Amino acid sequence: MSSQTSRPGNAPDTALVNRFTPDAAARLSVPAHPARATPAAPPEAKRGITARARGLLKPGSAPHAPNGATGPGGPPPNPPNPRRDRKLTPLKRLERYISAIFKFGRTEGMAKDARKRITAAELRMDAIEGELGKFGQDIRQSWDRGDHVEDLLNSHLDSVAAIEDRIEALSAAWEARHLASMDEGHRLANRIDAQQDRAEAQARDLRTEITARMRAAQAETALLAQLFSDLTRRIDRLAPATGTADTPRPESAPAPVSLPASDGFALFKDSFYHRLENRYRGTVEEITTRLSIYLPDVEAAYLRTGRKPAMDIGCGRGEWLGLLQEAGIDAFGVDTNEVQIAAARAAGLDARRGDALAALAEMEDASLSVLTAHHLVEHLPFDAVAWITREAMRVLAPGGVLLFETPDTRNVLVGATTFHTDPTHLKPMPEQVLGVLFETAGFDPVDIRHLNPHERMGEFLDKTDFNDELAFLMFGPQDLAVLGTRPNKD
Question: Could you tell me which residues come within 8 angstroms of residue 282 by beta carbon, excluding any fewer than 6 positions away?
Fold first, then answer.
């Protein structure tokens, strides 16, 4: 390894005057322990420092005193160092040579290792520089892409702005059209409402007119029926004189079964029927409660006709007569059952024994306010029922009421069982028959009512597993009432 270093440019050799490079002997002659550091020499002693250093490397040489240091006033010279002046033995020198060689080898190995590390570092730096180059390219590409994206974004923003402007324009146009449509819709709705109001008013007027015409037609029909009924009565009066009547008058009851004449047997039958009604029809209090539903109709007719009396045919025990008496209505009853007539008279009621048809035939025209027959028509033939209905139009005053109450055989239990409990019942009189019969006689209006349901009807209606229609058929109303009013116009 050369001890010289290259000089930069053409510098003269005098630049190396102060560079000291000891040889091997000088290095071996260096003592093991360096001398203690001396104070720095004054400036004037620095001129001969190189010469003194060279002299120290020679054995047996002593350092020269600096200029001006010797003399009577200078400092005393450095004392001699016996260890530094001692000469080394050849073995010691050899040892130092070997040590220097080993140190030199380690230094050279460290230098090689440093060169390897430097080479590896340079390779890594080259790789890093390559990666940095790639990264720079990526950055440049990213910047280029960013510029492109920015351009696209700007163009999209421009497009969005244009679309927003278009949307705002369309919204404004739609809002204007919507407002116009709303105004037109309101105007149209107002016109429709007005037309609907006019149509409803016309419909109401039409319904009113139709109702009035129907009432007028019904009144005319009732009047024609009344005139026809009066005409048939006049024919009946003329029939005996002219000899044109081939059938007996309704006043004459059908011929009874031929039995030996016996007042005792008639009394026996009357007692039987009285006992049967007491047991199966109901108590006087129960029947009175049921019949009280008709009081408003009877009181109104009583007042409309100028307080004319009421007549109850088939009055029985007199429950209805007692109710009328409590209401302050003048009333009397007719029945053929002597036992029941006696019971009614005992209660202080005006009950008369006699035939209902004959008693009705003897009444004067327009002399009654109310004519009632509770559970009577099912005991009579239809001819007798029709005759009573026609005759009622004669004896009732205008505004008077005819009332028939009979078992409602639409109730299955009534039609199949209780109707046949009374052996004097001939056949049911359903609402269809009685309704048409009242209309034919000229009554108007005709009111049909179904009353007094069975006490267990509510129980079966509340059952979720029982049909309501079946409950109505089995436990529905047990009585049928038909009320007809004689029109005020003759």
Answer: 290
